[in-house]
Amino acid sequence: MRALGIETATSIASVGIVEGDRLCAACALPMPGSHARTVVPLIDRALADAGMGLHDLDVLAVSIGPGSFTGLRIGLSVAKGLALAARLPVIGVPTLEAYVHHAGPRSGTVSPVLDARKGEVYAAAFRWRGRAVELVSAARATPPERWAASLRPPCTLIGDGVDAYAECWRRAVGEAIELIRLADLPPSGAAVARLGLARLRATGADDLATLEPSYCRASQAEERRGGGS
């Protein structure tokens, strides 16, 4: 089966196409602003590199968070639009789980930390068990100091939260922690595609009408509404 994966949770947009375990195409582009002008050209490029069209795919997989609110909305909107046009099923893939799969097996815990702004990170913890990934601590938005206090070596941190709060992690765990910056290991659309295929086989496609991003905290609009009630 062939899957196209869309990853827009961080400042680096990534698209990947896989057929089973085989990587057919992958491309990425840093975009500090909006991904609105980036995602569709990346998809077109990946399809061209793979020698495919949309109708050659079996499923679209899309990263659903947590991460950039705007980036997640753009990625999901594009996935839904393409799914309707090509009559393809869509799978929502948890961003942090796909990121750990992309990082590959490591000893101890692997913790993606994405900069959530407002002095917080989106964080979760996983552990590799053979070829499978086990959830240790569910995704949440939390101050980096609080997350750092929960870390136990050996552990690996990945993501742009590493860049933003490197000293915080070092103070908490010292040299017994591996820090991998976003530029050295960005999230991967191909990893989203692979995990999407696995989830499709296990649980089937998501409902296109009800699939929404998983933000892990209220948006600014929701916070304003809550403050006024």
Describe the protein.
The chain has 229 residues and is α/β, with parallel strands linked by helices. The protein has two domains: 2-95 and 186-227, 2-Layer Sandwich (Nucleotidyltransferase, domain 5), CATH 3.30.420; 103-180, Nucleotidyltransferase, domain 5 (2-Layer Sandwich), CATH 3.30.420.40. Helices cover 36% and strands 31% of the residues. It has eight helices and ten strands. It has helices spanning 39-50, 69-86, 95-103, 144-150, 160-164, 166-173, 189-203, 220-227, and strands spanning 2-7, 12-19, 22-30, 59-63, 90-93, 109-117, 120-129, 132-142, 155-158, 177-180. The strands form two sheets. The chain has a five-stranded mixed sheet, sandwiched between helices. Strands 8-7-6-9-10 form a five-stranded mixed sheet, sandwiched between helices. The longest helix has 18 residues, at 69-86. It is globular. Mean pLDDT is 93; it is low at 220-225.
